[in-house]
Amino acid sequence: MNLGFGDERLPATPAIPAPPVPGPGEPPRVIVADDEPLSLRFLQAILKAEGCEVEAVDSGDAALAAAERATPHIVVLDAHMPGGINGFQACRSLRERPATRLVPVMMVTALTETTDRHYGLEVGVDDYVCKPYRREEVRGRVRSLLERQRVLLRLSRVEDPLREIVRMLSISAPHSERVARLAGAYAEHGGAPPEIVRTVARAGFFHDVGKLALPETLIGKTTPLDAEEEQLLRFHPERGHQICRGIPALREVLSAIRWHHERFDGLGFPDNLKGRGIPRLAREIAVVSVFDAIGSNLPPKESITILDTQSTQGWWDPEVVARFIEMIEADGPEVRPTGWTGLDRAIFNPPPPTGHRPSERFLRRRPPG
Predict the structure, then answer these.
(1) Alpha carbon distances (Å) from 365 to 41, 165, 192, 307, 368
(2) Is-contact 185 118, C-beta < 8 A?
(3) What is the pLDDT of residues 313-338, one digit of tens each?
(4) Fold of 4-8+159-363
(5) Helices (H), ranges, 157-279
(6) How many CB atoms lie within 10 A of CB 180?
(7) How many Cβ atoms from other residues are within 10 Å of residue 62's Cβ?
(8) Comparing 279 with 356, which gets the higher pLDDT?
(9) What are the backbone angles phi and psi of residue 338, rounded to the nearest 5°?
(10) Is 346 buried (19+), middle (13-18) or exposed (0-12) by CB count in 10 A?
């Protein structure tokens, strides 16, 4: 598919290296490093029950030596291990070695501070599970990381990974196209220039890319999810960020991919960001995505009422919600940005600026709060 966003075409992206993935019938090889014997045995039991081949060690140095002997499929590291290097240092070393650069690293820690999670992201940690941890969470995160690796392997085998992602999303996620349309219309309704309209629409289209790393049995499931499936679903923002962070054309929309499930009151996921600490693009895509999800089962008027109620309860940015509701009330839920012809025809071509100003009705939106 040759998807364009205006005159600018999504540039071709170079091939990505193949990540380590278990072969057919091969058990995932996992290295677990933890200096607490009880914690180490518990993790071993969980992972072996999941069908993994586990090598347990008690230090970061031992984890690196084990990875040097045989490349694992996942490494699980305790953040703080006395003597030798800690989990963060071990992760940095794994990222510096060509053989383990693409191996997923999960950090097991009692740390809950956002700064610690941010530091982990800087050194290359892919995932966190906090002590005291739950069996289903550990299992779910391991399964989710393995599914992500399979998506990356698939992308490594095509000439243009970005267009393969577009193709996969177009088949599996009609919600993404609707969010792209509404998000682009929202940006245009607010008077944004065409380049911003394109970026916001692109964020809407790619925001759920992490769902490509969900098990096929979970995608499109209509019956209630069990506890482990709920866990898997919650990991998709992180997986989407990990899949797309190496694609230059998506750099501007990574915030929406990772943080579109954060909540204004700080009770969202994956990083518990709060208020305007959530990037604006992510706050906007969150509102549009929620409205479309609600609207799949309810008429627009009821969807607006629910969205407005959630906003007053502190879930979403009240300013974004007010602006979005203003647009829907004025133009209806089928509103589309200028130049929108549907992504199935691979074109969204907003015209150049013409001095457009947002409507007076839009400027007189109700104040947030």
Answers:
(1) 58, 37, 16, 16, 9
(2) no
(3) 999 999 999 999 999 999 999 999 98
(4) Hypothetical protein af1432 (1.10.3210)
(5) 161-172, 174-189, 194-206, 227-234, 236-244, 254-259
(6) 27
(7) 18
(8) 279
(9) -60, 130
(10) middle
